[in-house]
C-alpha cells in the first residue's frame, strides 16, 4: 500500500524524531512510504488567524504532491482535521477531494485502515494522555467528555497495545491545553494559565510521561514545564507506539 | 493587545482568584455532565431541539403572526420593537400610561442588551432587579458576567460588605444564608410596592400565544403576580411552535445550565389576572438581519443556558467581563460581531477552537466553527491588526515556496542553533514570557530523510 | 409599522422551510413503582420533604389536620385551596406573610419532581409564591415519566396561568452556595396519595 507521509512544518523543524517514528511505524506495517520533499505546511496557522484566503495556493500545492498516494498519513490530528474540514474554500478538484478523503492521522490510520491488533513496543512508564482538541472533538479519536454517546477511544486502543504502559486517569480528562496556534501569543496570559493547569493535573496524577497526538500542544506544555523546571517528560504518541525509549 | 486579552491578563494576575473562578464554573459543568448522563436519550434530545429551532427559524414570520393573534385573543397587548431604542420607548410609554414609578424586573439578557435600566433611571423611575445575583451586580453597578450566574465572579465577603453598605446587614457577616434572607426581606417589600413587573422570556409558544419563564427563586412570579402591569420582553427567536415542543426544551435547559432536572418554577403566562394588564414586547434588534447570514444564523437557536461559558477554558480563566459585550463567553463571541464587527473583532480570537462549547450546547450550535468563520470575516473586512497580517503574509509566502522554506530552516539551525523565526509568527518575545522554546534539533526531518532514506 | 418592517426582513432572510422533527421517539412507559421512586428521589433532591400515604386508609383531611398541627405547630394563617368554604380571593398577601399554602396538584412529573398548578387551583396566582411554606398533594396515579407526557396531559393555556413547581424556592447566587427560600416558599412538603 502506497502511503504518502506528511510531516507538518513544526515537526519537520523542531521535532524530527516524531516524523522518524511515524515513518518507521508505517514501514513496520508494510506500507510503501513516500515522502514528497516539497511539502511545507497545511496552512492552518493563517486560516485560524482569519487569513484562509491567503492559503489557497498552499492547499492546492499540498494536494498535488500527494495525489499519487493511496493514503496520506500525518502525525498530527490538528493538520489532518484542517485539511478535512477547511479545504472547502478551494475548487474541489480531484486532487483536493483525494487529499481530504484519504488523509489520516497516524493513530487513526493504524486503527481504522491497518486495523492493527498488536504492537511491538514496550514503555514501562506512567503515561498521561493529552487528548488534543482537534483529534478529540473534530475527529473523535477519543470520547469527548461532553458527549453522552458511546465513542471508543482510538488513542486508548493503541496505547493499551504497548507493553508495561500505565495510563493515568486525569481530573479533567480532556480540557484544552491552551496552545491554539496564534492564540498562544495573542492571548498569552490565558494560554499559559491553561497550560499550567493541564500540567498540574498531570503532576497531581503522578504522570511521568505526557503524550499526545499533537506535537503543537506538547511544544506549548513542554515550554511551560521547562520554564517551571518541573513536570513530566514530553513524548509524542508516535514515539511510544514505535517502541522508542526515553 | 486586544481588549479581551488585556482584560484577561489583568484577571489572571490574581491567580488564586482565577483558580477559584475556574473551579466554581467547572463544578457547574460537572453537574451538567452528571445530569445529562442520566438520560439515555440526551444526544437525541439535543438533535431534536436543534431541528425544532431549524423549523422555527425557517418559518419565523408565520410563527410570530400566529403568536400575536393568539396572544391578542387572550387579552394580551402585543408590541413590536425594531431595535433597542424602540423597545425602551415602548416600555417607557406603558409605564407612563400607568404612572408607574417603581418597577421590579426579573433576569433578562434582552433588557440588558437594550440598556433598559439606564433608560428608565434617566426618567427617574426606580427599577429593581429581583434575581439575587442580578440584584448584587446592580448594587455594584456592574453588568452580569454570566447569563445564568450573573454574580459568579463575586466572593461572598464582597457580597457581605456590599449588603452591609446598601441593605444594612451586619458588618463582616458573609454567610450566604444570612445574606439571602436579607435580600429576601428587602425584595419582598419591593415586589408589593411595584407598579409594574418586567421579565425576559425563555420561550414563547406560537400556537397558544403565551410565554414561559423559568426561575429557581420565584422572582418573576412574585413580580408579575403582585404588580398591576406585567411586561414580558421577548426576542423574535424565542418562539417554539407548540406546547409539546416545550417538553424537549424544558428537559434540556436546566440540565445544561446548572445540572438541575428542571428549574424550581416553570411558569406559563397566557392571560393577565383579573384587573391587571399583560404586555408582550417582541424585539428584533438586529436578529432579522442576522437570520440572513447563512453561516451564522444557527446562533439564533441559543436558549441562554450558559453551558458554553461553564465549559469554556478561556471564559473560566478570564471572567465574563473580559468579553466586554452583553453576552459573554463563546456564544457571546459569535453573537456580538453581528452587532458591531469592529468593536467585537477581538472576541472570535478569544478561543482555541477546542470545540467543547459546541458539544455542550443543548441546541447544537456549531459555536467553534462560527468562531473560525468570524475570523475569516474579520480579515475580509480589514479588521485584523497589521502586526498580525504582515508576519502571517510573510509566513504564507515562505510556505508557498518549498526551497525558501527548506533553506530558511537550515540556516537558522545551522548558523545560529536557533529556531526559524517564521515558525513562531515573529513573536519570540510573547511566546517566551512564560515559556521556553524547544531546543533546536541538529537537523530537521527533511535533512534526516535525505540522509537516511533517499537512494 | 415596526411589525411589518420586521416581518418583511424575516421573510427575505429566512432559510427554506425545514420540517419539524418527530417527538414520538420520546414516549416510553415506565412501571408505576419506578415512577414513584424517581419522583420521590428527585423531589427530595430538590429539597422538598416527601411523605407517602399511598397505602394509608386514613381519609386525607383527617391526615392533613394531624400532619399540619404536628409539622407546622406555629402556623396560624392558611391559604387552603382544598377548603372550598373560604373565599381565597379575599386573602391579602401584602400585609403579613401567610404561613401555609395547601393545594393538590393536577399532575406530577417523575423526572424533575414538577407539580402542575393552574388558575383553577391557585385562585390567586401569587399564593404559592408568597406563602412561607407550601404543602402540595399529588395523587400517585397522576405522575407521568417526563415533560413530554406532561405537556400532552395538561393545557398550558387553559386557564391563563399555570406553573410547574419542583420544590421550595432556592438560589445559589452567592458563591454557588445553595440556599433554600430565595423569593418564594422557604419549605415545601409533598404528600403522595
UniProtKB/TrEMBL annotation, chain A:
<feature type="domain" description="Cysteine-rich">
    <location>
        <begin position="127"/>
        <end position="222"/>
    </location>
</feature>
<feature type="domain" description="Cysteine-rich">
    <location>
        <begin position="3"/>
        <end position="84"/>
    </location>
</feature>
<dbReference type="InterPro" id="IPR004017">
    <property type="entry name" value="Cys_rich_dom"/>
</dbReference>
<protein>
    <submittedName>
        <fullName>(Fe-S)-binding protein</fullName>
    </submittedName>
</protein>
<dbReference type="Pfam" id="PF02754">
    <property type="entry name" value="CCG"/>
</dbReference>
Automatic annotation (TrEMBL), chain B:
<keyword id="KW-0411">Iron-sulfur</keyword>
<keyword id="KW-0813">Transport</keyword>
<keyword id="KW-0249">Electron transport</keyword>
<dbReference type="Pfam" id="PF02589">
    <property type="entry name" value="LUD_dom"/>
</dbReference>
<keyword id="KW-0677">Repeat</keyword>
<dbReference type="InterPro" id="IPR024185">
    <property type="entry name" value="FTHF_cligase-like_sf"/>
</dbReference>
<keyword id="KW-0408">Iron</keyword>
<dbReference type="InterPro" id="IPR017896">
    <property type="entry name" value="4Fe4S_Fe-S-bd"/>
</dbReference>
<dbReference type="InterPro" id="IPR037171">
    <property type="entry name" value="NagB/RpiA_transferase-like"/>
</dbReference>
<feature type="domain" description="4Fe-4S ferredoxin-type">
    <location>
        <begin position="293"/>
        <end position="313"/>
    </location>
</feature>
<dbReference type="InterPro" id="IPR003741">
    <property type="entry name" value="LUD_dom"/>
</dbReference>
<keyword id="KW-0004">4Fe-4S</keyword>
<dbReference type="Pfam" id="PF13183">
    <property type="entry name" value="Fer4_8"/>
</dbReference>
<dbReference type="InterPro" id="IPR017900">
    <property type="entry name" value="4Fe4S_Fe_S_CS"/>
</dbReference>
<dbReference type="InterPro" id="IPR004452">
    <property type="entry name" value="LutB/LldF"/>
</dbReference>
Automatic annotation (TrEMBL), chain C:
<feature type="domain" description="LUD">
    <location>
        <begin position="70"/>
        <end position="193"/>
    </location>
</feature>
<dbReference type="InterPro" id="IPR024185">
    <property type="entry name" value="FTHF_cligase-like_sf"/>
</dbReference>
<protein>
    <submittedName>
        <fullName>LUD domain-containing protein</fullName>
    </submittedName>
</protein>
<dbReference type="Pfam" id="PF02589">
    <property type="entry name" value="LUD_dom"/>
</dbReference>
<dbReference type="InterPro" id="IPR003741">
    <property type="entry name" value="LUD_dom"/>
</dbReference>
<dbReference type="InterPro" id="IPR037171">
    <property type="entry name" value="NagB/RpiA_transferase-like"/>
</dbReference>
Amino acid at each position: 500500500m502506497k502511503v504518502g507521509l506528511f510531516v507538518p512544518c513544526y515537526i519537520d523543524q523542531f521535532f524530527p524524531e516524531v516524523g522518524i517514528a511515524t515513518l518507521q511505524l508505517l514501514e513496520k506495517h508494510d506500507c510503501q512510504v513516500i515522502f514528497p520533499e516539497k511539502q511545507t505546511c497545511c496552512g492552518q496557522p493563517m486560516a485560524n488567524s482569519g487569513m484562509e484566503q491567503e492559503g489557497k495556493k498552499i492547499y492546492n500545492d499540498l494536494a498535488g504532491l500527494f495525489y499519487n498516494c493511496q493514503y496520506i498519513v500525518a502525525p498530527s490530528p490538528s493538520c489532518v482535521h484542517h485539511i478535512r474540514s477547511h479545504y472547502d474554500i478551494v475548487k474541489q478538484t480531484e486532487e483536493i477531494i483525494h487529499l481530504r478523503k484519504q488523509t489520516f492521522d497516524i493513530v487513526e490510520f493504524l486503527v481504522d485502515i491497518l486495523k492493527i491488533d498488536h504492537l511491538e513496543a514496550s514503555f514501562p512508564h506512567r503515561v498521561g494522555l493529552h487528548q488534543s482538541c482537534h483529534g478529540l472533538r473534530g475527529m473523535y479519536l477519543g470520547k469527548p467528555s461532553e458527549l453522552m454517546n458511546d465513542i471508543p477511544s482510538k488513542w486508548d486502543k493503541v496505547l493499551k497495545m504497548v507493553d508495561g504502559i500505565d495510563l493515568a486517569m486525569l481530573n479533567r480528562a480532556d480540557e484544552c491545553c491552551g496552545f491554539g496556534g496564534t492564540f498562544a501569543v495573542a492571548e498569552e496570559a490565558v494560554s499559559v494559565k491553561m497550560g499550567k493547569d493541564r500540567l498540574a493535573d498531570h503532576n497531581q496524577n503522578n504522570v511521568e510521561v505526557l503524550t499526545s497526538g499533537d506535537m503543537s500542544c506538547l511544544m506549548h506544555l513542554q515550554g511551560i514545564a521547562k520554564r517551571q523546571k518541573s513536570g513530566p517528560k514530553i513524548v509524542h504518541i508516535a514515539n511510544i507506539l514505535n517502541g522508542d525509549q526515553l | 493587545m486586544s481588549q479581551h486579552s488585556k482584560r484577561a491578563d489583568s484577571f489572571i494576575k490574581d491567580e488564586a482568584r482565577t483558580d477559584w473562578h475556574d473551579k466554581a464554573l467547572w463544578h457547574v459543568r460537572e453537574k451538567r455532565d452528571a445530569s445529562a448522563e442520566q438520560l439515555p436519550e440526551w444526544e437525541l434530545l439535543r438533535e431534536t431541539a436543534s431541528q425544532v429551532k431549524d423549523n422555527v427559524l425557517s418559518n419565523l414570520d408565520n410563527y410570530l403572526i400566529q403568536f400575536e393573534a393568539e396572544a391578542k385573543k387572550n387579552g394580551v397587548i402585543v408590541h413590536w420593537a425594531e431595535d433597542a431604542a424602540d423597545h425602551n420607548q415602548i416600555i417607557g410609554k406603558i409605564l407612563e400610561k400607568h404612572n408607574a414609578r417603581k418597577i421590579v424586573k426579573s433576569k433578562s439578557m434582552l433588557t440588558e442588551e437594550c440598556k433598559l435600566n439606564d433608560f428608565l433611571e434617566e426618567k427617574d423611575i426606580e427599577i429593581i432587579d429581583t434575581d439575587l445575583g442580578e440584584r448584587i451586580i446592580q448594587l455594584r453597578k456592574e453588568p452580569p458576567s454570566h447569563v445564568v450566574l450573573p454574580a459568579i465572579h463575586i466572593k461572598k465577603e464582597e457580597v457581605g460588605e456590599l449588603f452591609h453598605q446598601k441593605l444594612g446587614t451586619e458588618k463582616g457577616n458573609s454567610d450566604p444564608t444570612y445574606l439571602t434572607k436579607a435580600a429576601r426581606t428587602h425584595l419582598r417589600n419591593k415586589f408589593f410596592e411595584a407598579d409594574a413587573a418586567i421579565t425576559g422570556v425563555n420561550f414563547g409558544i406560537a400556537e397558544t400565544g403565551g410565554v414561559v419563564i423559568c426561575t429557581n427563586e420565584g422572582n418573576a412570579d412574585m413580580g408579575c403576580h403582585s404588580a398591576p402591569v406585567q411586561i414580558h420582553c421577548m426576542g423574535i427567536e424565542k418562539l417554539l411552535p407548540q406546547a409539546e415542543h416545550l417538553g424537549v426544551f424544558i428537559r434540556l435547559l436546566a440540565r445544561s445550565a446548572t445540572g438541575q432536572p428542571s428549574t424550581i418554577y416553570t411558569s406559563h403566562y397566557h392571560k393577565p389576572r383579573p384587573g391587571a394588564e399583560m404586555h408582550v414586547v417582541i424585539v428584533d434588534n438586529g436578529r432579522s438581519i442576522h437570520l440572513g447570514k447563512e453561516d451564522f444564523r444557527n446562533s439564533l437557536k441559543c436558549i441562554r443556558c450558559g453551558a458554553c461559558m461553564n465549559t469554556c477554558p478561556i471564559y473560566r480563566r478570564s471572567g465574563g467581563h473580559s468579553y466586554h459585550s452583553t453576552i459573554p463567553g463563546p456564544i457571546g463571541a459569535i453573537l456580538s460581531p453581528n452587532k458591531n464587527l469592529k468593536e467585537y473583532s477581538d472576541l472570535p480570537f478569544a478561543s482555541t477552537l477546542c470545540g467543547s462549547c459546541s458539544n455542550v450546547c443543548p441546541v447544537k450550535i456549531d459555536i467553534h466553527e462560527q468562531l473560525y468563520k468570524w475570523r475569516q470575516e474579520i480579515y475580509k473586512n480589514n479588521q485584523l491588526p497589521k502586526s498580525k497580517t504582515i508576519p502571517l503574509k510573510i509566513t504564507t509566502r515562505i510556505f508557498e515556496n518549498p526551497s525558501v522554506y527548506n533553506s530558511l530552516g537550515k540556516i537558522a539551525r545551522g548558523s545560529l542553533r536557533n529556531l526559524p523565526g517564521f515558525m513562531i509568527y515573529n513573536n519570540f518575545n510573547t511566546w517566551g514570557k512564560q515559556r521556553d522554546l524547544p531546543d533546536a534539533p541538529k537537523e530537521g526531518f527533511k535533512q534526516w530523510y535525505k540522509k537516511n532514506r533517499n537512494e | 409599522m415596526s411589525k411589518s418592517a420586521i416581518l418583511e426582513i424575516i421573510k427575505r432572510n429566512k432559510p427554506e422551510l425545514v420540517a419539524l422533527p418527530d417527538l414520538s421517539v420520546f414516549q416510553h412507559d415506565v412501571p408505576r413503582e419506578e415512577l414513584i421512586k424517581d419522583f420521590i428521589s428527585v423531589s427530595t433532591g430538590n429539597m422538598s420533604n416527601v411523605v407517602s400515604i399511598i397505602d394509608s386508609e386514613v381519609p386525607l383531611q383527617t391526615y392533613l389536620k394531624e400532619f399540619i398541627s404536628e409539622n407546622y405547630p406555629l402556623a396560624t394563617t392558611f391559604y387552603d385551596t382544598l377548603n372550598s368554604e373560604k373565599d381565597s380571593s379575599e386573602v391579602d398577601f401584602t400585609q403579613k406573610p401567610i404561613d401555609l399554602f395547601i393545594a393538590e396538584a393536577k399532575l406530577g412529573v417523575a423526572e424533575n419532581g414538577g407539580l402542575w398548578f393552574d388558575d383553577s387551583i391557585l385562585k390567586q396566582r401569587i399564593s404559592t409564591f408568597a406563602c412561607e411554606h407550601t404543602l402540595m398533594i399529588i395523587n400517585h396515579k397522576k405522575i407521568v415519566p417526563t415533560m413530554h407526557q406532561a405537556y400532552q396531559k395538561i393545557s398550558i393555556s387553559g386557564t391563563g396561568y399555570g406553573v410547574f413547581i419542583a420544590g421550595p424556592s432556592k438560589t445559589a447566587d452567592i458563591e454557588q452556595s445553595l440556599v433554600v427560600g430565595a423569593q418564594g416558599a422557604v419549605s415545601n412538603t409533598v404528600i403522595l396519595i
